Amino acid sequence: MTTSPDPELTALLDAVYHRYHYDFRGYAEASLRRRIGAALTHLRCPTVNDLRERVLAEPRGFSELLRFLTVQVSDLFRDPSYYRSLRERIVPYLRTYPSLKVWVAGCATGEEAYSLAIVFAEEGLLDRTLIYATDIHPESLRAAEAGVYDLERFARFSDSYRQAGGRGSLSDFYTAQYASAILDRRLKQAILFSDHSLATDVAFAEVELVSCRNVLIYFDRPLQDRAIGVLRDSVRRKGFLGLGAKETLRFSAHAEAFTELVPEDRIYQRR
Amino acid sequence: MGAVAYAIKPVVRDQLVTALRRLESKATQSLRRVLVVEDDVVHRESTCKLLAADDVETVPVGTAADALRALRTTTFDCMVLDLSLPDRSGSELLREMAQGEQYGFPPVIVYTGRAISRAEEQELGRFSQSIIIKGARSPERLLDEVTLFLHQVETNLPPERQRMLRDARHRDAVFEGRRVLVVEDDVRNVFALTSVLEPRGAKVEIARNGKEALQHLKLKPGVDLILMDLMMPEMDGLTATRAIRADPATAKIPIIALTAKAMADDRASCLAAGANDYIAKPLDVDKLLSLARVWMPK
What region holds the CheR-type methyltransferase domain (chain A) (predicted)? Predict the structure, then answer.
């Protein structure tokens, strides 16, 4: 935490934790302030204390606040070179496993999980793969499970898909209807969407690959260490961990447990 | 004058100590032995070559019979097993090794050229911690896995499995002949649970999700205890638990939930769904055994 945590903010986060068991107390304060500032405007609360009272009084208010605290925007094949590296460097190794498990930790509205499913489908591995996609936000999970995105985003998605080394056309994996597009059922069938918190829960399965991108940046140092500990416990030895472009294990308490495999794309291998 | 002597002495002493230590470790460090069971001569030789190192001795054999003979007379730190052998299948060989008390049971790495079905993987998973499908990057992974096992020996952590399989005294009246249904899709946990329960005389049956569990209970009634993971594909543990409780034929079977969730209300939801108890992951073997003792019907 920073040197002088805002008492109103602390009281709000404590209240949320005790009442709803969502733990944001280890989130980086600057981004929390920004998000809560936005929530204040949207929910028409003059002060953080008003927001706290509102959230304690009505679960609906909490659910709206949660949206501000957790929603992250993502894209299909965001940071294409990450997916290209997975395809070229990691997939050949993954092929040696008779069955595979992948965990997308902090899946938000599902774009990353579907991108991985598409790579695995094109590489002929999807039939033997189970992808766990977890998030703490129930609304995001519902959206992820639906797999429906605005059609206007698909031009950008298609570009990224090609840059990521896509073998065919992204349209092989979705059906457009009116202003939206729905992703293929065979992708969904390989993904298990579930609720899981890196702040409070522990490892639930041993997996060959964990992809946890742009989640750690919202955590303060102790929570980052906790979360990376959970990721480490989940990756089998010689398995892989992928982080977001601005994230690193370098200063983590668990840095020793991994080697940097593709440093430019933040892909690590468990020792 | 004296100063010079003092400057040199500690250095010399340090060098001596280092040299002595090196000698000592060389003498106490035993040779690691790897049994390579592979019927194809070319593959066998290339595997041995791959694994060869100063402190590793590879013992190549081409048949299951030769493998069993070697396991009777020699202690191995690791075994690399191809599944297609001329005299019996790889899984038959593994079963035989598990039954015979006279065989050592080193950590086994299955190294196979063909694809493996989920059912086969499950069956092999009872005896083997890693299965490698041959391909472009498989030599690298084989080397990784063998190194891991040999390193485990080095740090004096004999694999739990080896100890359990050898130790017949673990048989326990509470578990003898009891049927435990493990509903879990994580191979690591299935392996751990099997290693702990089977040597104690229990028969472990496996379902990979809630749906398979319900089917299993219908087809093979008479299960004594259910260990239920919560997060599974197809049908999750809470739903399956509710369904088991709703059916009069299965309503009384004790269920212990395996959960990765830490919050009090997560645990409460296990109990509300009808579980008798829960245990947190990662599984603590002793705790699991005492829970199983508590809930196993007398």
Answer: 1-249
